Structure prediction request, 401 residues.
Amino acid sequence: MLAIKNNIMADNAARHLSRNYDALSKSVERLSSGLRINSARDDAAGLAVRELIRADVAMFRQASRNAQDGISMLQTGEGAMAAIDEILIRMKELAEQASTDTYSTDQRAIMNNEYSELSDEITRISGATKFNEKELLNSTDAIDIHLGEGVLTITPQVMNATELGVNTTLAVKEVWSHLKTVANAGDEYIAAGDITADTEDMIKFDFAEVNVVGPVEVDLDAYAGTGITLNQLVQEINTAAGYAAAFATYNSEYASYSLQLKAEVAGDTTFAITDDGTTCTAIDNIANFGGAPSTNGAAGTGNDLLSAANAQNALASVTSAIGTKDSYRATLGYWMNRLSAAVTVLDIQVENLSAAESRISDVDVATEMAAMTRNQVLAQAGIAMLGQANMMPQMALQLLG
Prediction:
């Protein structure tokens, strides 16, 4: 019907043009962003799945970096162990050289001096080998490497000359271990209810040779109502003592940690822990110690090369130390291998999750270009037809004329 009030053809053409223009706009958006899903309305379910996958990809990528950092840390320790290896080989050579009676006393003294310096260097390397403040050869504190959905626990060992048995002066120190244990060093060790601000809650202990400065005193009042963890207690004791008197010691047999107190110098023979004469519940709970060394803290003599017999004993000690060193160095190696395998698996997970996310989220350029071309043609045709439809009412003027 030819009419001038309502132009149905123009309305119809405008509606189709609007729809085609929206489709063209969507194609341009997808091609310019590279994404098939740019908002939730594009694919609500696909968007939800994509975001979950992206979160997992980010986590696994960081886990891979964690593992690589762990490898770097272990390589630092293993490199130091390689240096100790060379030192022990030289010490064994010196011990073998001094084991024969063909050398004079002065010559033996020269050999012994070198042996002693090498022993001291092992201890220095052990204390200086760190990675981000984590001690690798002078601690037994566990280091957890988080790998996304699992943990690899690295347990360092002490590799100084004393622990290896190649020290030249055996510094035996009296050590006492508290009988209370906790699963983790960060767990509460003295409960909040055992420490009150109403009394002077002090931990006091003394080793015989520390009497110059008096007993070590630790005030726990600051922890009234909160309790104190084992790590906090160790820190407080060491601050008060002025030396590494306390340790959070790990017992592998029971998989637990306890407080350990060690004398400052060799030769300490008496350990005592007391309160300050006031009511002190914290002391009652902490004063349960045991396990003093059988040597009773007596200082002894370590290895030397000053006689053939002593050199032969040193030779046996160095041989044993090399075995201990090799065992720990091998342990570092299989930890590195485990982490390398973890990196490989994590990278494969990232690769395949990224591929899955791409299939959900990324635009298919070929398909979208075909759609955009179609939408361009339809939009152009729509514009042309809208123009023709707008001219239709003018045909009525010919009848009116």
